[in-house]
Amino acid sequence: MSTQSTHIRSAPPLRRSPELKIYRVGTPYPYVDSSAIAESAASAACAFLTAHYRIANGRIQRFNQRWLSQRIQQGSAWANLLDPYLMDLGVPFEPAENGTYASFVPGVAYLPSSLEEVLSLLAEVGPVLLCLPWSDVYNHQSRANGWDWIGPDGRDSRATYATRSKVVLLKGVAHKFNGVRVHDGARPDLWMPFAEIDHAFRNGALAFSAEYV
Fold this sequence. Notes:
28% of the residues lie in helices and 23% in strands. It is α+β, with helices and mostly antiparallel strands. Strands 1, 2, 3, 4, 7, 8, 9 and 10 form an eight-stranded mixed β-sheet that branches. Helix 1 packs across helix 2 and helix 1 (37-57) packs parallel to helix 3 (77-89). It is globular. The mean pLDDT is 87.
């Protein structure tokens, strides 16, 4: 169990706007129940940890998704995920050892609250976890400018209404067509337009990123 103290900071100022930047995660973490926020939170969190472990250590390390999902309660999954597992105790490596935690916890945590802060973190720090109002139309996908996008209408599906919450991993950014790369645990990675992320924050989305050493 880690005794490291995590410092919470605001997102750094954006110093560059990458035309295309995608972080590598490794083997996908699928979720079991697509309607359960706890499942999507555990899937996205383990992918998040794997990506940041790769940034910090230069190699792949998988984390125990089943162990984490069993400890996140339905309905309060986001709060239970951040405190204690992402910011204090850590998540065991895979497979889990009874009674032990991985010591991979952040030195600096970020809680972005806007599209601009998310883009800054994607450019400067690494992948971002996003808990957003999830509409059923996001389960569809379409093509726009030769790329696969979330939603049935390419890069514009803002006239939709959320039916539940879901946690996804934002693992890349492309300023050349104003989109973020989304890992949702169910499909190959898709793009989502900046406008959808901005819309999500206006409707209560929560986000997290961190720096690890």
